[in-house]
Amino acid sequence: MEIHQLRYFLAVSETGSFTRAAERCHVAQPSLSQQIKKLESALGCQLFDRQVRGAVLSEAGHALLPRARRILAEVNAVDTAIKQDLAAGSGPLLVGAIPTMAPYLLPRLLNRFMRQYPKCELTMREDFTERLVEAVVDNELDFAVLSTPTDHPALHLDVLGRERLLLTAAKDYKLPAATKKPSVRDLHEQPAVVLHEMHCLGHQIESFCSARRVTRRIVCRTAQLETVLRLVGLGLGISLVPEMCARADGAKSRSYYALGRGGPEREIAVAYRLDRCQSRLAATLIQMLRKDISSGLHVYQDA
Description:
Shape: rod-shaped
Number of domains: 3
Structural class: alpha/beta
Largest sheet: 7 strands, mixed
Number of helices: 10
CATH topology of the largest domain: D-Maltodextrin-Binding Protein, domain 2
Helix content: 40-55%
Strand content: 15-25%
Oligomer: single chain
Distance between the termini: 59 Å
CATH superfamily of the largest domain: Periplasmic binding protein-like II
Order of helices and strands: HHHEEHEHEHEEEHEHEHEEH
CATH class of the largest domain: Alpha Beta
């Protein structure tokens, strides 16, 4: 038994004619008649008495009629409900983000998103790049917000923008370039508070310094960006941090400096499976994130 066969059956029962039913259903009359015969064969009973003036429901046809109407009504209700749910933003959305982006990019964005789509079943996961990549590949996440380079044959990486990494130091810290704008070479041999390389940001900064032959005197290596900021504020050393982190910093114990041309940067990207259909919710959130990034990093400041 197939849905279109029930539709044809209902059309014949309501018009009393195979010909008029075929016209209503926009199919050829022989095709409609053949499908009714298949339905009768599947049910093992005759549904219509074929008469010269048309078709009349048999006893079995009368028994099927209310059930066919109920089934078709439920099918139509499913179609309508799906469209309504999609329009309302109902359904699950699983998002991941690396720790050096999640606190600055997502809280306000997700708040706006959930106000727009209150029926969305949102799950947020903060984790390291390697674990997020695995989760996206295993379909545990719809997409992840991270930085490049990230390479996996099953994933597509959509770069949404770039941001600078800024030099931060305590307010009273005496940089080598006290009378001019700091540069990359001013990092050389300075006491440094660094982020552990388990973070992609820590690895990116280490690679940047190595490529420019900058030797840092590491006095502390930590797994938390907030710890980096606190230690810098106490004057223990200097560090490089994302601009979004600097703009969200409300403390007055630290100063931030752009290192000018050739200074370090990182890309902000989203990763999702190549072979997976992106949901409307995921596409909308990614578009909102893209717009926020293009409008400037000031959007990451807390209200």
